[in-house]
Design brief:
transmembrane helix, 14% helix, MYOF protein, membrane, 2 domains, repeat, transmembrane, alpha+beta
């Protein structure tokens, strides 16, 4: 894809999978040439079920996922801003992905295009909403020693990441502080009565309909357990 902050492939890939599989993970990677920008993992044990051997014959289900956004993480794009020995891990993007499993061979198909009506069906369920994330830092102990000033950063995806210029700046970092020796083995940041606060405002797709269903199922499960326990 040419340089684009929001590329859209709208492609479908077919690959064989033998069940039950030997490996439990499906690994995905975002590549720029031969360079790996970020990776993500789907565990078959979390997106499928073999069913239960009960008298009622409880059925299982084949691997399925989405359509939903899958976040990708990888090395920070500017490791020199953190540490030369530990570049850290950063959010590198997300992919709107759907995985479905069908019985039978793929009949030689390896790649295809997604139908326009399927693309429109997914886009209708992606309204955006603004979300706020606020963090209060009460203490920072057992921090590494050294002459460098330290600060903590609160981020949600690319939002709040000071090394990412694609999002608007936000008060997402604590003030710089010099670690002090605690008189024993470790160092700490002298916040005392002034606790730093960081906040991030972000815009994401509204997945409230999924949260509502999940919360309803969890509440029903807890009530059944407490009733029959």
């Amino acid at each position: 894809m040419p340089p684009d902050a929001n590329p859209a492939w709208n492609e479908v890939f077919f690959f064989p999978l033998r069940l039950p599989p030997i490996c439990d993970e499906i690994q995905l990677a975002i590549l720029s040439g031969t360079k790996v920008l970020g990776t993500a993992t789907l565990r078959l044990s979390q997106i499928s079920s073999a069913g239960a051997e009960l008298e009622e014959g409880t059925p299982g289900f084949l691997p399925c996922f989405g359509p939903s956004f899958l976040p990708f993480y990888g090395p920070r794009p500017h490791p020199a801003r953190t540490s030369s020995t530990d570049p850290g891990v950063a959010y590198r993007g997300r992919v709107l992905l759907e995985l479905s499993t069908h019985m039978g061979p793929p009949n030689g198909r390896q790649k295809g295009t997604i139908a326009p009506e399927d693309i429109a069906r997914v886009q209708r369920h992606l309204p955006r909403r603004r979300f706020g994330l606020c963090g209060v830092f009460y203490s920072a102990t057992m921090v590494p020693s050294g002459p460098e000033l330290l600060r903590l950063e609160l981020s949600h995806g690319n939002y709040g990441d000071r090394s990412d210029a694609t999002c608007k700046p936000a008060p997402s970092v604590t003030p710089h502080g010099c670690p002090l020796f605690d008189g024993n083995h470790y160092h700490y940041l002298p916040w005392y009565g002034d606790k730093p606060v960081a906040a991030v405002t972000s815009s994401w797709e509204d997945a409230g309909h999924r949260w509502d269903i999940l919360n309803l199922l969890r509440a029903t499960c807890r009530r059944l357990v407490s009733t029959h326990g």
